[in-house]
Amino acid sequence: MNYKFFIIIIILSFTLSVNAQGILSDKNDFNRQDTLRGSITKERIWWDLTYYHLDISVDPEKRTIYGSNEISYHVIESYHEMQIDLQQPLILTRAEQNGKDLEIRHDGNAHFIKLKDTQIKGENNKIKVFYEGKPRVAVRAPWDGGISWERDKNGNHFIASSCQGLGASVWWPNKDHMYDEVEGMLMSVNVPKGLTNISNGRLVKVDEMSESTTFHWQVVNPINNYGVNINIGDYVNFSEIYQGENGDLDMDYYILSYNLEKAKIHFEDAVKTMQAFEYWFGPYPFYEDSFKLVETPYLGMEHQSSVTYGNKYKKGYLGRDLSGTGWGLKFDYIIIHETGHEWFANNITYKDIADMWVHEGFTTYSENLFVDYHYGKKAASEYVIGTRRNIRNLKPIIGPYNVNKGGSSDMYAKGANLLHTLRQITGNDVRWRKILRGLNSEFYHQTVTTSQIENYISKKMKMNLNPFFNQYLRDNRIPTLQYSIKNNVLKFRWTDVIDNFEMPMELIVNEKNIRIFPTKEWKELKLKSDNFIFDDNYYVNKKFVTN
């Protein structure tokens, strides 16, 4: 075993955790299970995921799942123990490799499998684990996830999984840490006769038995664990082909049978979304796996190539406009937002949930870009500015590392508004679009840290944006521009900011934009008129003072 390799990883993980929590000043009590779930342990780091074959049976009447997961992996460094995650009350019953039963040491939701065969660096191996039981029932899906065991209005079983944050191990055994995405997988899901299971990727085979049916879904692209899903119900299907940047994209819609005609009209937003996001972000990242919208008994989630939908065929967010401007009722929020995650969450995926803003900030911002593409820049600005009413600024956006803990819910609206502010700083919409598309190209099918995203944007904007990101992501205060005006002389400075914070700002005088460069020290600017307004596209506070 390469002990030096493991020691470096452990020290680095500990340092990142301490530093991040120190910057954030976010007091939390974490236990051993949090660390086992949220850190890259020595039982995880030595092997790299390559393929899953999840083979399960779902019993809706008993609300149970049982089956196996065959895990293929590449040996990075030789080691003798492997961590597999499966959350109680599910039970990991057995593990085998090369025909040999393996000893399992259980530690809460982490299960450590002692391997009998020597793991040789560079080899590709497989291990198969078996499990059974009643998975956790989703209490408030998708936020408090698990399995939703519902029935449709005709009395048919209507079942779905949702598990972001909580983790995919709430319903199936896997390497449940975001840093290592599997390169592809096969899902074989057996359900009672008369029901259909929809999962990720493409349907490659259906096995009909006397009392049940097994649906085999294959994914050929990398996929994060929480993006894997099952959806079981009385589904019917309609489809269309979208002529996208990378050719023909199959777009399939799986709907409860009695909602078919309604969906054919309402789901027109799906193609409109693809048009807008391919323009701003680049090609849809999973052409080989197709795109699907799947109706579910909960609001919806960004499951890769199998986006789930439960917005009750209403515009806005369950009929409400989150921006309060009217623009939010021009589209179905769930279709636009969850599809946006195909680029930011599924294509570009955080390594640690502490950096969840990379998913939610960019995707909430994508709503604004949808409005921009279809209704114009002015409408888009009004929309994103309107969402500021949902920001609380009680704690930083970024959470503590290595304990599976996200940051503030402000990652949604505040994340969108910090990106909208960056667009203003860029001052060039062509360059801004290149940055957004460049992110999806540079980090194509990768897991990332927020530092990688920050550094990329800084490089492309040719600016040191570290103070900007530290202010908006790691501090809960919003920059306040103090100003006074007398005899056409404008005085201004930043307050409520971190050290070294600098950010340009724009004011509008006689319909002309003037850029100023405030710091923490007072500055002056002679204007031709004291009749001016500040550009509200910058997410800052303004405070008039007598000076």
Walk me through this protein's architecture:
The structure is a single chain. With 547 residues, the chain is α+β, with helices and mostly antiparallel strands. It has a domain at 480-544: Immunoglobulin-like, CATH 2.60.40. It is built from 12 helices and 29 strands. It has an 8-stranded mixed sheet. Strand 19 and strand 20 form a beta hairpin. Helix 7 packs antiparallel against helix 8 and helix 7 packs across helix 9. The longest helix is centred in the first third of the chain and has 22 residues, at 3-24. It is globular, with a radius of gyration of 25 Å. The model is unreliable at 1-26 (pLDDT under 50).
The beta-strand count equals 29
Strand % is: 25-35%
Spatial order of the strands in the main sheet?
5-4-8-2-1-11-14-13
How large is the count of helical segments?
12
Low-confidence stretches: 1-26
The level of helicity is: 25-40%
Rg (CA only): 25 Å
What gap, in angstroms, lies between the N and C termini? 68 Å
Shape field: globular
Q: What top-tier CATH class of the domain at 480-544 fits best?
A: Mainly Beta
Largest sheet: 8 strands, mixed
> How does the helix and strand content classify structurally?
alpha+beta
CATH architecture identity of the domain at 480-544: Sandwich
Q: The CATH topology of the domain at 480-544, please?
A: Immunoglobulin-like
Mean pLDDT over the full residue set:
94
